Amino acid sequence: MRTQPTALSPSVRNLVLACGIRGFPLFTVPSQMTKPKAAHFLSSQEASFRYVEKTNPASSNLAFLTYGVYELTGAIESGALSYANEEALLFCIKGDASATLDGKDYPLHHYDVLYVPRGSSYRLKQKQGETRIVVCRAPCEKSHPAFHSSWSETSTNEKRIRHLKGKDVFLMFDVSEGADKLIAGYTIFQPHQRSWPPHNHTDQEEIYIFTKGRGSMEVYADEETKSFVRSVGEGDAITIPLLNYHPVFSQEEELHFIWCIAGNRYWVGDKNKDFMTGKVDKLTT
After folding, report:
1. Fewer CB near the last or first residue (10 Å), C or N of the chain?
2. 105-119 pLDDT, tens digit each
């Protein structure tokens, strides 16, 4: 038995016609696409771009910071990347790439840092090889100017360096740059050194991301309850919630790490000179 088609009301018929024959959307082929183009084969070894998120406030005891890694392999360019309600810092920890941010190109050489304002669109690209770019993000309310920090310049600029016993701190993104919450830099420990004095923060949360060498780290609220003691190496990271002491210990080689802070914007040694002299057993900021 053949089913008779159901008559459509004028309003429904007009809607179907507006959407296309039999409900399929109408598609107008642009003039430049009237000739077919060749297909593109992507082998399993093809150049690639991916983002790996390591931690965020839902998976840690941090209130603000999200940390992830962009991985670029081969000649590749990413699609548009943006954070609607967050500011971000990019750290190039391996390889050689570039970022196009709001129409301007910024190089991302080894240890270079780029501040990405809230809502700004950017793309990452490289010509060859493998690049790893750490991204740390935090919520913000205001939009601030983009800022590029070159490692080759900062690492020789004494105004940006704080020398402590057995270690140097490099202020890659400091309070002199505009941001809501973020400041960041690198610390390089010489072999067989430790953080001194241990310190904690009442108004800053932090993450350490280790980029070279091996060592160890403790995170604790007080000596009696200290139980978080970890060996660390390249690629490891440790989150530091408020009110936790967080000393680092290097071993037989240099130990490098990113420190990224979200909260009130200051570096501990600039706020408390006892941190620079090491004349106290511990301190709180």
Report:
1. N
2. 999 999 999 999 999
Q: Is the peptide bond before 247 cis (omega within 30 degrees of 0)?
A: no
Domain count, the chain: 1
- Domain of residue 263 covers 48-284
Tell me the pTM. Answer: 0.85
CATH number for 222: 2.60.120.10
Contact 77, 117 (CB under 8 A): no
Q: Classify residue 220 by its DSSP letter.
A: B
What is the rounded CA–CA span in Å between residue 16 and residue 22? 7
DSSP string, 148-208: EE-HHHHTT-GGGEEEETTEEEEEEE-TTS--SSEEEEEEEEPTT-B-SS-EE-SSEEEEE
Structure tokens at 1: 């038995």
